[in-house]
Every structure is written in structure tokens, then in C-alpha cells.
Design goal:
alpha/beta, Rossmann fold, TIM Barrel, 2 domains, seven-stranded mixed beta sheet, five-stranded parallel beta sheet, globular
Length: 352
């Protein structure tokens, strides 16, 4: 294989509108991988289609293309993969959908990196550069016959999760084509979730344990966006460790980092009035909460450990502090019927 100097990442857009279509928040995975590759001496570029179109001249000059997709972006991701492979460019796919459907993704890609991709991707590029077999690279799925013969599929087991998240570099969003002040700065401070909701992919993808960066690392990253109007903490649950969350918010206030922010949290955050006041005083203007349903049977089936009344009280408490609520719902469970879905919709404020 020719020397690998340039890797281009694509974060495809969805064929149907979603929250990323309206608010330009590049997911951190591809950006972090590109940052790691730059540090390792490669040239890396990221195209997030919700921000700017892919520059096909840049794509044609790539030695390897990486594509990260969710389920709703996988059809377009597969189309990009097919196009790159037909042009003779090796394709590596990753992200949530490819992690859970690696065999499907290999119908369009040469390699699939499952789960956390930082170590496996670097190992794969190193093996390709040296003409070595990827047989023993954890987290990797591939074809035994390579690009020419295809052969059969191999799905290697995953390695242990990254324990020290501070060891990873701060993602350099300057590598994202078209990224600028009109976009949202996205900060990852943790991975995993201690809860085990039955419908959710987070624990299967990133583990049920809760791993997090140090408060000092979070503040260091916030300083980069001192003059930005808005940052988004993209953790699946920002306030699991409330003591740590409080320290981060206190330091944000002390350092005059007064940009507005939002994050995903659970409804019971409002039980901690000290945390709630710190959220308000540090300029939290919006929270994203997975309420899922107001049907008690659905909440039990989802293993949410939450009651409908508590959800309502949580929304009221946030609103009293001037914090908006973006509620997220999963309708159509085996415990739902037409009336329970209608009841959930009736119980949901039209504007939160």
C-alpha cells in the first residue's frame, strides 16, 4: 500500500431533519481522531455535512477516508464509502451504527473500528503503513482478503475502555472545514453512564461505568472558548458526579468564563438546589433531558427509575431558575398504546 500521509474524515448528514440540522454541533469523535492523527504526524481534515459540504477535491487527495455515522446518517455514510472505494481510496467506518452493525458496514467499507477508536485507528494505520496484518488489532472488523479478494469477515474483540480521559488531546475543531463562530463549541467531559435504560446504546457503546476528565482539564478547554457565546457539554449525562460538576461550575464562575452553556442531564438534578443554583449562576440556559414518556408502565419497561410526577416537577423547577428544558421522548414501547402516546403528548408543554 502507498504511504499514508492524509486522512479525511466525513460526518454525514441525515436524510431527514434532526437537532443537528438546526444547531451546528459537530460530534467530537471524528474531531478527536483527527487531532490524534495530526499529533502523530498525519495530515487530517474533518467534513461535517451539517456545517459545510464535503470538498471532493480534498476527498480525492486522501490516502484513507474515515466515516463516522449514526443510524440515521448511515445511508449517506454508506454512499460516501461506496464512492470512495470505487475511486480506490481505503475506507474505515466507525461510530455507533457501525459498532453495532459491523457486518453491514463492511458491505461498504474495508475496515470497521468498533467502540472507542483512538488506539485501534492508530494501530490500523501503522499496520497498513508497514504492510502487516490487522489480525490482532482490537476493536477492528475487516475482510480477510483485503480490498482485492474480500474473503470472509473477521470481528476482533474490543480492548478495555480508555481509563484516563485526560490522556486524550483536546479536540481541535479548527480541523473541521467551515467551523467558526456560527457553530457550537462541543466539550466532552465524560464517557459512559451508570444507568442502564433498556433502549439506550450508551452503556453498550461506552460502558456502564462513568469515566471523566478532571475539572482542571474541563476548565482548560473552556478557556479556549472564552469569547464564544455558547458551549455544549456533549456528555450523555453531565451531572452524574455532582461534586465534580459543582467544582467545574464554580471554577467557570471564578474565572469569568461567562459563556452560556447547555448539557444533557437527568431530571433528578433539580433535587440538588446547590447544583441548580450553580447551573443558573454559571449561565446554563438550557438542559436536554430524556424524559422518554409520561406513561408509568413505559418508564418501568425502560428501566428509567423515574416517575411522571417527578418529571413534571423537574420542568417546573428548571423554569423557575430561568433554565429552558429540551425534553426528549421515546414513543411506541411495548407498554404504549395510542392513548398513552396521546397522554404523553398532552402532558408535554408545547414550549419549554
Amino acid at each position: 500500500m502507498q504511504p499514508i500521509r492524509k486522512v479525511v474524515f466525513i460526518e454525514p448528514k441525515s436524510e431527514s431533519p434532526n437537532v443537528y440540522s438546526r444547531v451546528h454541533i459537530p460530534r467530537t469523535g471524528a474531531v478527536l481522531l483527527a487531532t490524534l492523527l495530526e499529533r502523530a504526524g498525519y495530515e487530517a481534515k474533518v467534513f461535517c455535512e451539517d456545517i459545510a459540504p464535503v470538498d471532493e477535491r480534498e476527498l480525492a487527495s486522501a490516502d484513507v477516508v474515515g466515516i463516522s455515522s449514526l443510524t440515521n446518517t448511515s445511508p449517506r455514510g454508506y454512499a460516501w464509502a461506496d464512492k470512495c472505494r470505487s475511486a480506490g481510496i481505503p475506507v474505515v467506518m466507525g461510530g455507533t451504527h457501525a459498532t453495532f452493525r459491523p457486518g453491514e458496514a463492511l458491505g461498504h467499507a474495508d475496515f470497521v473500528v468498533k467502540g472507542e477508536g483512538e488506539g485501534p485507528l492508530l494501530d490500523l494505520l501503522d499496520a497498513l503503513q508497514g504492510g502487516r496484518s490487522p489480525l490482532h488489532i482490537p476493536n477492528l472488523s475487516f475482510w480477510t482478503g483485503g480490498r482485492a479478494g474480500r474473503g470472509s469477515q473477521v470481528h476482533n474483540p474490543n480492548r478495555a475502555f480508555v481509563k484516563d480521559l485526560d490522556s486524550l488531546p483536546i479536540p481541535d475543531f479548527r480541523l473541521v472545514h467551515g467551523w467558526g463562530r456560527g457553530c457550537v463549541a462541543s466539550i466532552m467531559t465524560s464517557r459512559g453512564c451508570p444507568y442502564d435504560c433498556t433502549f439506550c446504546s450508551v452503556t453498550a457503546m461506552l460502558g456502564r461505568g462513568y469515566r471523566y476528565t478532571s475539572p482542571g482539564r474541563v476548565v482548560e478547554e473552556l478557556r479556549r472558548y472564552r469569547d464564544w457565546g455558547y458551549v455544549f457539554f456533549c456528555d450523555d449525562n453531565f451531572a452524574v458526579n455532582r461534586k465534580r460538576t459543582k467544582e467545574i461550575l464554580r471554577r467557570k464562575i471564578e474565572e469569568g468564563l461567562d459563556m452560556r452553556w447547555s448539557a444533557q442531564v437527568r431530571a433528578e438534578v433539580t433535587d440538588d438546589l446547590d447544583l441548580l443554583r450553580l447551573m443558573r449562576d454559571s449561565n446554563c440556559f438550557n438542559v436536554y433531558i430524556g424524559f422518554e414518556s409520561f406513561n408509568p408502565r413505559t418508564l418501568a419497561l425502560y428501566n428509567k427509575h423515574m416517575e411522571a410526577g417527578r418529571i413534571q416537577r423537574s420542568m417546573e423547577t428548571f423554569h423557575k431558575q430561568g433554565i429552558k428544558v429540551h425534553g426528549m421522548f421515546v414513543l411506541g414501547s411495548d407498554a404504549d398504546d395510542a392513548e398513552s402516546v396521546r397522554a404523553t403528548l398532552r402532558s408535554t408543554p408545547s414550549s419549554s
